[in-house]
Every structure is written in structure tokens, then in C-alpha cells.
Amino acid sequence: MLSAETRAEIADKIVRCFKDKSQIPLLHTAYPEMEIEDSYRIQEQVIGAFLAEGRRIKGYKIGLTSKAMQEMAGSTEPDYSAMLDDMFIAEGAELARADWADPIVEIELAFVMKAPLQGPGINVADVIRATDFVLPCIELVDFRVARAPGMDVRDTIADLAAVGGVVLGGNPVSLRDVDVRTIQGSLIINGETRETGLASAVLGNPLTAVAWLANKLADFGVSFKPGDVILSGSFIRALPVAAGDDIVARFDSGFGDVALAFV
Length: 263
Description:
Order of helices and strands: HHHEHEEEEHEHEEEHEEEE
CATH architecture: Alpha-Beta Complex
CATH superfamily: Fumarylacetoacetase-like, C-terminal domain
Shape: globular
Number of domains: 1
Number of helices: 7
CATH topology: Fumarylacetoacetate hydrolase, domain 2
Largest sheet: 8 strands, mixed
CATH class: Alpha Beta
Number of strands: 13
Distance between the termini: 42 Å
């Protein structure tokens, strides 16, 4: 475990990286005694610093939702982070590549809550009852802790699960009208389909991922509130983006397209 002073020092570094779009080396290499609990405490301090500036939590993201990604990160479960109000980006936005440290893009489903959801003991049926609707989205992943061989879950958790931003689509779909496991999505960059996947790649069912997070947050006395947006995890391989890229996420089952561009 790290000392409280060291955790505070790391949190300050990550906050600065968010603000100046810089990066720091792998944390677990610089601090070999670092544990996963340290990472979550650092994450909490980073979020706390932003809340003190007047920003607000508007939802949560879930990462590492495939076994392959968990094994790569040295984890046995997903990771997560809160998402703040200014991380939500308008559909069709043009984003300056210079405003991002090391962006990659993913496609996934966002669950919008209509009722509180408090773990422990939450299951898929509870998630269905508490969900207002589901939206397609593009998640922008960004790294304050620089990607390098050996990067593991201790690095990503402290870095707010590499959260960058999210672009929500404008076509809400009720869970009564769709089996989310069967939804197919494709990532199209500059007119070329680069990745295609099924939502069932997310822990077998994106609803399972949302239930997992509700139960995990209960360990910290946190619950979902009405209006919270929960990103359930990517069902494709994340891809890097560059200035000049036009990005479209295309979903079936009535979800439609989500688009943005980097300039």
C-alpha cells in the first residue's frame, strides 16, 4: 500500500495531466508497492478535486469488460470511473486532436437510469426495472498514464479508467423493445468499416456489466441516481484516431448512427 501522502501526490499529477493534456509514466512501475485499493483511492481524490471546481458526476463508465482485456491488465474483473458533466460531447462535434493526450475510440451502449439503483444484490432484472432507455454511443478513451508494455489495472483505475469523453446518439430505445445482447455495431473511420462486434461481448450481456457496477459501487456507499448515464463497455477493439478522421458508430436494432470528427 502507498502512504496517504504518496496517493495525494499521484492524484495531483493526474489532475494536472487532465488540464494540460500531458502524460506520466506507468504508476505501478514507479510505485511497485501500489495496490488496486490505492488506485481507487487515487481515483476518488482526482474526482474530488474536479467536484471542488464545480463539476458534477453525470454517470459512470465500465472498462475491461472482456476476459482478454482483463488478462492483459492483470485483473479478474472490470474497472470503472465516474464521468463528469463536461465529458459529454455533442453528437457531430468536431474535436481538436491537440486537446487530447492519446485518444482511442470505442462503441458501446449507454443505459440511462429512471430510478435509483443501490447494491449489493443487484441483478439483471433490477437493472431492467431501473433503466429508462438505452442509447448508442462512442466512447473516447484517453490516457494520462502513458500506454506502455506492462500497463495494468492499477494504472488505468487511478487514471479514471482512462475516461476521456462520450458522444451519445439521439435515438433512445426501450429495453422492452430489444434484446441488448444481439445488438451489432460497427466503427467506421473515414468511410471504412474498421471493427464490427456484438454487444454480447460485454460480459455476455451489457446488463450484467451494469449490475456488476451497481454492486461494486455499493462497497463505497455510492448508488445510481435517476438520470445517470452508465456506459456498459465496448464490444469492439478500440482504435486510435488522428486529426482529419471522420468517425461513425453504426448500430442495428433501431439505434442508428453516432458521429464525430477530429480536426
